[in-house]
Amino acid sequence: MSVDAARAGRRPTARRRVSAAFWRRPWLRATALLGPAAGAFLFVYVAALGVLLLSAFWALDPFTGQIVHTWSLDNFRILWEEHTYWRIAGRTIGLAAAVTVTDVLLAFPFAYYMARIAGPRTRTLLFVLVLMPLWSSYLARVYSWRLILSKDGALNWWLGRLGLPDQNIAYTNWAVWIVFSYIWLPFMILPVYAALERIPDSFIEASRDLGAKNWTTFKRVVLPLALPGVIAGSIFTFSLTLGDYIAPSLVGNTQFIGNVIYRNVLGLTNNIPFAAAYAMVPLAVMALYLVFARRAGAFESL
Amino acid sequence: MNDALKRGLGAGVLAILAVTLAFAAAGCGGSSDNESSGDKSSLPTSIGTGEGKLSLVAWEGYTQPEWVKPFEKQTGCMVTSKYAGSSDEMVTLMRNGGDQYDMVSASGDASLRLIEGKNVQPMNPALIPDYPNFIEALKSPPHNTVDGKHYGISLQWGPNTLLYNTEKVTPAPTSWESIYDPKYKGGITIPDNAIQIADAALYLSKTKPDLGIEDPYELTQDQFDAAVNLLKQQRPLLKKHWVLASDEIDLFKNGDAVIGASWPYQTNTLAADKVPVKDLIPSEGATGWADTWMLSSKSKHPNCAYMWTKWVSTPKVQAQQAIYFGETPANTKACPIMDQLSPGSCKQYHADAPASYFDSIKFWKTPSADCGNGDDNCMDYNRWQQAWTEIKG
Q1: Is the whole model's pTM more than 0.95, yes or no?
Q2: Of B9, B17, B385, which has the smallest distance from its Cβ to A42's Cβ?
Q3: Which chain A residues have a beta carbon less than 8 Å from that of B382?
């Protein structure tokens, strides 16, 4: 009895029919698999972005606090003409870049050791060390930095014991930089580790066989192959710094884009249209960054 | 991915996107006509049965367990409270919160905005037995009574003070000048609040009389610019703008700030923690607040709200709160109880002071273009807020 005959002989059940339909129509399969997640993504994220974009063109009635649905470019005009907002945007982007560079410099050697030098046991231990801070609350970690850096805090206590002069970086941009670099470090280490770990040993052996010194091998084999991982990590560190307002408000003394948006949404004026307009700035910066990252092949390394 | 799959995926994504946008558009349409339900013209004549819940927006220190717990026990209204750090935040919470919040402890610079935005509704003072015992100035003050309608019941009032660390700041300051003094660079903190411009204006009204500042909330362009400039010069001297009272407490506790603009609440809390601090009303006088419990126009628990207002107006609770926060009760009957709870506190917090003391404080109010003298070339609150963003940089 042939297979076909056996198939024909059995009555197709509903289950079989469904699975046959999925097999015959790949689009149906794709929709069923991706639908729920994509739907949630579109509802929660894309729709929210759409509304954000729309509301940036609306205005706020200062007397009643109601949003007026008339189209105008006033919000963007204020942003353009008022130097303060340029300065704040520049400061935010500068900080995001500084945090990203810092994290690359800290994460690369660490990830390299994890991926290529450490034995399996050490590697597991290092993984735990990297991931452990993520188990505790973000706020707890930021507040603990406040205690470390404050004038009568842990750091100055140690400096005093070592006979060194007090530091005075609490509530400065230095403090914000340190805290951000610390908080986002795991998000840099993991993709860099993933990229480094994927480099086959044979590549490095081949490089050596061809006479390359360690530094040359690193520069011409390891680094180019790890670069997409670095860029992938930088997407995290850069975008997370760009959007965060909690750490600056807790450990800093100046405004960043997120603080201005926060104050406009809750606190200052309830001027949601203005906040939406300003939110376009980090959005545009991130869009450019992602285009650049895609060109550099970072998405293969995520 | 093969082509058929790609096409199918594209179609699916498009379909979902279309549905999403339709939904979002419908959502927008819906939200545009949520004008507040506004005036409920008929005032209640009695307090009904409690609804079991009460949700408050309050200043930090206004809903302490000492008087919230007995209230819950007595009325069955379980209180949840959210602290706000500024009047702006209170207004925003009440405007956006829908029916989430029942009452707000609004200061004079928020109350009129809430009344104008129809976010709060009139209350009946006849239902508050202690109302006749209030000081005259707070029975129908212009910041909560409009056209004879009482939008809420007055609570407490007090001055914004100058707080300093007695070990680090010597000799003891006597003037607001100290918070603009480069001597304390990196040790100064002021509230993160646009109304702080009024404090600068008050200082200038005494130190630069030729500016002609009479009311620190009614500033012409020149006067306003002078105040803003003073704050811009002060900016590099600041350790931090504090948002919540607890921020300032942390700053003083950890030695980061040694002098700053404050509320008496911070002084009391820090002193209780044995931090060497004192506060004073400097020679130029002080801005201050007069707070009102206001009832949201969308409140779902109005009976509990009336019970709460009744409760916090009683002499005992008035005295407790006055001592806890370091402010002056509206209820004149609170004075002897204050002295019972903490000897000398009635005098310390001016609960027995004559009406002239009340008049000496420049109470927070919302700046508007109307200068109060027929002119309308004063800076309105939008300008204040813009300037505040510029000052902070």
Answers
A1: no
A2: B17
A3: 62, 269
